[in-house]
């Protein structure tokens, strides 16, 4: 039996304080640039979409503008679809998949639904290839009021005026080998809890909302994505990341009680994608393509349902 190696920050069994958070933050320098990778592609979309700055993250000495890309010719009589990426900044295909969808596929939905796309919710974490923000807070457990994460609070302010109009929200994520090797051990250390090893699913899967399950919607996405990349099988105990598999490649979480991004709109159709970029069977381009396939399949399914073309009540 292997004995877990203690996390290099903090004292086992004791939650972190400010000193440990500062030590953790100092361990993670900039490894890529939001201003080089993301912002130029957002700016290039201005000729075809409405690009707005919905907030600014002030993490001295750095400041990060937060951008949303919306349909040009917004129609108040149509429902809204929200696409979010980069809630966890290290999950690269969420960011680049959202941008690729805008660049190549979004125009085909003009006049059918209002699109609102936020490609990179957490640019500080994107630059450092990290899960948390600088305060060692997970934005994807912070979509609640009051939110402890500035990234989450800003996105909630953006969508609040559109309450009741969302037909769809798809939140683009990855599950990586670093989840087990770095991020889950860090979480246990931060909270002063023992680290309990888990498994990383080999393939793509979805997280449905246990309070509003939409099995046909999830199946439609899985069927589209399996043309691009492989679907994660269940572990021998019938679970994926410890949650029971409801149908092939689908598990459920209680989105809103957990403070997850996919729960913020109250949309009829919600899902969280999980791409596996560390598979020898998946390239970065394939991961981006899988995210795009998921977005398009989600939109196509939602728009095919009775009453979907009208504004939600």
UniProtKB/TrEMBL annotation:
This is M14 family metallocarboxypeptidase. SUPFAM superfamilies: Zn-dependent exopeptidases. GO terms for molecular function: hydrolase activity, acting on ester bonds; metallocarboxypeptidase activity; zinc ion binding. Belongs to the peptidase M14 family. PROSITE patterns: PEPTIDASE_M14. Pfam families: AstE_AspA_cat. Keywords: Hydrolase, Metal-binding, Zinc. Its cofactor is Zn(2+). It comes from Denitratimonas tolerans. GO terms for biological process: proteolysis. Residues 31-313 form the Peptidase M14 domain.
């Amino acid at each position: 039996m292997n004995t877990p190696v203690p996390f290099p920050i903090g004292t086992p069994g004791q939650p972190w304080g400010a000193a440990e958070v500062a030590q953790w933050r100092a361990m993670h320098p900039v490894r890529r640039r939001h201003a080089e990778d993301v912002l130029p592609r957002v700016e290039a979309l201005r000729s075809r979409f409405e690009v707005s700055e919905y907030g600014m993250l002030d993490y001295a000495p750095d400041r990060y503008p937060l951008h949303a890309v919306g349909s040009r010719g917004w129609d108040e009589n149509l429902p809204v679809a929200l696409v979010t990426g980069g809630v966890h900044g290290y999950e690269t295909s969420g960011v680049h998949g959202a941008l690729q969808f805008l660049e190549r596929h979004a125009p085909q939905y003009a006049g059918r639904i209002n699109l609102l796309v936020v490609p990179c919710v957490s640019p500080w974490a994107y630059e450092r290839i990290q899960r948390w923000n600088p305060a060692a807070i997970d934005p994807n457990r912070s979509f609640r009021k009051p939110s402890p994460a500035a990234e989450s609070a800003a996105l909630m302010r953006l969508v609040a005026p559109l309450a009741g109009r969302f037909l769809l929200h798809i939140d683009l994520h990855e599950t990586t080998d670093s989840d087990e090797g770095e991020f889950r051990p860090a979480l246990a250390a931060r909270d002063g809890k023992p680290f309990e090893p888990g498994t990383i699913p080999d393939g793509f899967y979805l997280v449905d909302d246990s309070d509003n399950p939409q099995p046909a919607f999830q199946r439609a996405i899985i069927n589209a994505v399996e043309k691009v990349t492989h679907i994660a099988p269940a572990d021998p105990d019938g679970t994926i990341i410890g949650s029971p598999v409801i149908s092939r490649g689908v598990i459920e979480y209680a989105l809103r009680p957990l403070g997850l991004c996919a729960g913020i709109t109250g949309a009829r159709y919600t899902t969280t994608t999980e791409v596996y970029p560390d598979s020898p069977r998946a390239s970065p381009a394939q991961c981006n393509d899988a995210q795009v396939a998921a977005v398009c399949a989600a939109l196509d399914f939602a728009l095919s349902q009775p009453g979907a073309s009208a504004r939600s009540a």
